[in-house]
Design goal:
Structural class of chain B: mainly alpha
Number of strands of chain B: 0
Mean pLDDT of chain A: 86
Largest sheet of chain B: none
Largest interface: A-B, 9 and 10 residues
Shape of chain B: rod-shaped
Number of helices of chain B: 2
Keywords (chain B): Membrane, Mitochondrion, Mitochondrion inner membrane, Transmembrane, Transmembrane helix
Oligomer: heterodimer
Strand content of chain B: under 5%
Low-confidence stretches of chain A: none
Membrane topology (chain B): Single-pass membrane protein
Radius of gyration of chain B: 30 Å
Order of helices and strands of chain B: HH
Number of helices of chain A: 6
Family (chain B): Belongs to the cytochrome c oxidase subunit 6c family.
Mean pLDDT of chain B: 95
Pfam family, one (chain B): COX6C
Strand content of chain A: under 5%
Structural class of chain A: mainly alpha
InterPro entries (chain B): Cytochrome_c_oxidase_VIc, Cytochrome_c_oxidase_VIc/VIIs, Cytochrome_c_oxidase_VIc_sf
Distance between the termini of chain B: 100 Å
Helix content of chain B: 55-70%
Helix content of chain A: 40-55%
Low-confidence stretches of chain B: none
Chain lengths: 169, 76
Amino acid sequence: MLATRVFRLVGKRALSTSICLRGGHGVAKVEDYTLPAYFDRRESPLPDIKFVQQLSPEQKSLKEKEKGSWAVLSKEEKIALYRISFKESFAEMDKGSGEWKSVVAGIFFFIGFTGLVVLWQRKYVYGDVPHTFDPEYKQKEVQRMLDMRINPVEGFSAKWDYENNAWKK
Amino acid sequence: MSLPKPAMRGLLAKRLRFHLPIAFALSLVAAAAFKFAVTEPRKQAYADFYKQYDAMKEFNAMKEAGVFQSVRPSGE
């Protein structure tokens, strides 16, 4: 019983008007972030406070009507009461945004920028490749691999025609 | 506002009942495809290679090319 009373107070944000006494020295300012907050989240469907805190006169009268029988409430009134307590419906809060397009665009942009950086590096930072990359050296390498019969069944040497000394057609 | 009560239990079982046979079938298909597209041709290629393989001929060709350390080409 006492707990429900406390929850009703919390629901009306009465804590904002409550006073924290600090041992006779004064009143502690209650920060906004320490008070219960409203948030739309699928996993905790009932937030600590109602969405609308300051009710307009029509909303106040609607709240009074809510205390009576709910069967007499019209559809618009029920929806209005829902909107007082909640900001977005589940369908609205689950709806995806178009944010992924910005994310993908950013990804492509920065990959492109990185490509430019790599090109610059290739030209201005890296030194020469080793002599083993020279065409003549590579030719000698290939000849040695063929002489050793590297992968003669399905791989490298299998594609060389040893009779005619040329690559197989 | 009288929606039918949604299914509360057996959700995983229902999903598995549908997806497990498909998963098994696809796995078997993948294995069969790999067997007949990769392993059988490869076995055949090796069989064909060694049917006409003359080891001494290949050895002498490699020896003359100079790739061995233990036996040098006949010229040297």
